Amino acid sequence: MRNIQNEKVKFGLREMAVIGMLSAVSVVLGLTGYGFIQLPVAKATILHIPVIIGAILEGPVVGAMIGLIFGLFSILQNITAPSVLSFAFFNPLVSVLPRVLIGITAYYSYKMLTVKNESLKIGIGAIVGTLTNTFGVLTMIYILYAAKYAAAKNISPDLAAKVIYGIALTNGIPESVIAVIVCIPVILAVKRIKR
Fold first, then answer.
1. What's the rounded mean pLDDT across residues 52-77?
2. How far apart are the C-alpha atoms of 161 and 150, rounded to whole Å?
3. Nearest Cα to 65, choosing from 79, 76, 80, 50?
4. Does position 110 have pLDDT exceeding 80, yes or no?
5. CA–CA separation, 183 vs 48, rounded Å?
6. DSSP 8-class letter at 115
7. Is the predicted pLDDT of residue 43 greater than 80, yes or no?
8. Which domains does the chain have, with CATH numbers?
9. In the predicted model, what is the mean pLDDT of residues 124-145?
10. DSSP letter for each residue of 137-191
11. d(CA 123, CA 12)
12. pTM above threshold 0.85
């Protein structure tokens, strides 16, 4: 009985260590600016990649916790360095909820695939997690703040959906490609080490 309890404690400590390490990676990427890639229309982010890695390696709860810290950091970042769209990111439904869902969707899309190719499974999980972030954040902005977004961007409210989902496509594709390129080798290497 004692050995089982010790194993649970160790597993809990490992999960906390992974959450702490990968959350720190997200925060450092955000603080240094290395977590953003300037595209012609907007900035693409790679801050979600540690969430995907944590989720696929340690499960949906770990992924959700890293996503929670990523989302809370997003709020803090918009308070300390406000931008034209900070009003939207002050709302946890925009900045936190989609980030928590990254870990859950990445994990289950990876886990539910029945193919034997591990790289393909990781790649699909990375794409689903990335699109959860991109479309989740932008959909919440559209649902909650379409008119305010249009005013901030100086466009007609009728064009808000086109502009928002245009950004989702423009950002979502390169963010997905980068997530796949980073997640596959990192996750495969960690899984080899864990064996």
1. 94
2. 9
3. 50
4. yes
5. 11
6. -
7. no
8. 2-194 (1.10.1760.20)
9. 97
10. HHHHHHHHHHHHHHHHHT--GGGHHHHHHHHHHHHHHHHHHHHHHHHHHHHHHHH
11. 27
12. yes
